[in-house]
Write a structure and sequence with these properties.
This protein has 322 residues and is of the alpha/beta class. 31% of the residues lie in helices and 27% in strands. The protein is built from 11 helices and 12 strands. Strands 3-2-4-1-5-6-7 form a 7-stranded parallel sheet, sandwiched between helices. Strands 8-12-9-10-11 form a 5-stranded antiparallel sheet, covered by helices on one side. Strand 9 and strand 10 form a beta hairpin. The longest helix has 15 residues. The N and C termini lie far apart (56 Å).
Amino acid sequence: MSATTPDRIPVTVLTGFLGSGKTTLLNRILSERHGKRIAVIENEFGEVGIDNDLVVSADEEIFEMNNGCICCTVRGDLIRILGTLMRRRERFDHILIETTGLADPAPVVQTFFVDDEMKAQLQLDAVVTVVDARHVALHLTDSSECQEQIAFADVILLNKADLVAAEELRALGERMTAMNRWARRHDTVRCEVPLDSLLGIRAFDLGRAQEVDPTFLSDTAHDHDASVTSVGLDVPGDVDAGRLEKWLRKLLAERGADIFRMKGVLSVAGSDRQLVFQGVHMLLETSEGRPWGRGPRRSKMVLIGRKLDGAQIGEGFRRCLA
């Protein structure tokens, strides 16, 4: 267990592969009556920001970075935003950093040990990794990021436990333990877990992090799988619900195995509320979002996957416009 200093602000790094349930967990944390003032820093993979539209309204202040991977090209932004928070530190009890699903958490965590100002004023409390029980087996063999997220976790939420058989869940739990014997594990549905199991637990251990990665404190480069790309669409106007459903079904039937994650906030003709959708591989879930305000309506969506044809996807989506 890490030593604690009372005047340092605790920081939780929330990680997990694409579609594991990080936004669901973040919304739970922001909605619970825990009495804490929490600052949230978000990072998205792609040029169109979606997550800020998916996060529930709350008193907490949300800082969003969507200009690359938080663990490499925007580390300067991370340090700058944390510096701003520290100058206003009396307002916050906890800081939560949600990384992109394609982030190796090690360089994010490294920030709190290689920067003197960060080290003096912030306490890394824990790395919490959300794992998609339904799809994790697809990524463990070919994604180093997925493996690193589990290996560096202090807490693992084996999420979507209701979508797999009991025997498969047991086997996955054993696999998680084999990959990271130190992490506390919770099998969850929609990330339902007591928040005192996640926040203020003082679980991060620098020595263990260096055991997982001996080069942890060195300034090494970090590369993503070049075949994994994002397609971002931001289109004014309404979409036709019938055409949209038909297009999505066709897209998932043809490319579902290669689409790791889909998410969007859409303006549907005839509806006065946003349509929110979230998808992981072949699974797609929709729900009503916030009412549309007085400003112009538009539809935004992001797809993340392997070898996606952005022009073709954009053309198909625009054919859904009303």
